[in-house]
Amino acid sequence: MKTRNFTLLLIALLAIGSAQAAGLSGRDIMQKVKNRPDGDTRYATVEMTLIQRSGHKRIRKLKSWAMDVGKDTKKIMFFTYPGDVKGTGFLTWDYDNPRKVDDKWLYLPAMKKTRRISGKSSKTDYFMGSDFTYNDMNTRSVDEETHKLLREEVVGGKKCWVVQSTPKDRDEIYAYRITWIRQDCLMVVKSDFYDKLKKLHRRLTISNINKVQGFWTMHLMQMENVQTGHKTIIRMNNQRFNVKVQPNLFTVSKLEKGI
To answer: Model pTM?
Structure first.
């Protein structure tokens, strides 16, 4: 047993050492993920399935556009189904500068009102009844967290880096997260979020990864709240890159006008 434990420890140390030998830190890896090519603009249709512990399902459909503006990203999405949420829109301006608070707006057509999502609410409130926070729906700045390379592991036959990320802002809903990143395509395949008591809270899994128009693309993600049993499945369809998008699409006036 002692020999086996020593062997496992040696393997773990060698795994960390191989990444360190390449001169990569946890932050380096997360920056590589953020810099992964994905076109200057993007479009997709989205199916979001909300599943209760009992198995009851609710399906929602959306259309989504995104545009990179320098190092920043603007996104807008509109719900198209079902009728009770149709026309609801969500607009984000994600800033690469960690000292600059991202802008987020939610338009509710039934109230004909646009709600600005505050910095604190975006970290703790869940998006439209899903298991994703508002912050999960945007592009996170690498330096909003500190990153530590833990080890390397093989997941689904693919070699991955395992990185622990700790938010610098104490208002975040999680104490830290551990993320598995495929080395061949720089795509996240799993991320575990731990609560302030250091217990596993949510688990994100990403699958159906392949190339579309030459860009590595994921088609399916699931976020499960392991403490409540509720889960959200997102299917990305009709993904297109470098589409023609007008910059004025990503404005509050367009958010309120709809598609």
So the answer is: 0.88
Per-residue confidence of the chain (259 residues) as pLDDT tens digits? 555 555 545 454 554 555 554 689 999 999 999 999 999 999 999 999 999 999 999 999 999 999 999 999 999 999 999 999 999 999 999 999 999 999 999 999 999 999 999 878 888 899 999 999 999 998 889 999 999 999 999 999 999 999 999 999 988 999 999 999 999 999 999 999 999 999 999 999 999 999 999 999 999 999 999 999 999 999 999 999 999 999 999 999 999 999 8
DSSP string, 196-230: TTS-EEEEEEEEEEEEETTEEEEEEEEEEETTT--
Residue 16 lies in a domain: no
The count of domains in the chain is 1
End-to-end alpha-carbon separation of the chain, Å?
Answer: 64
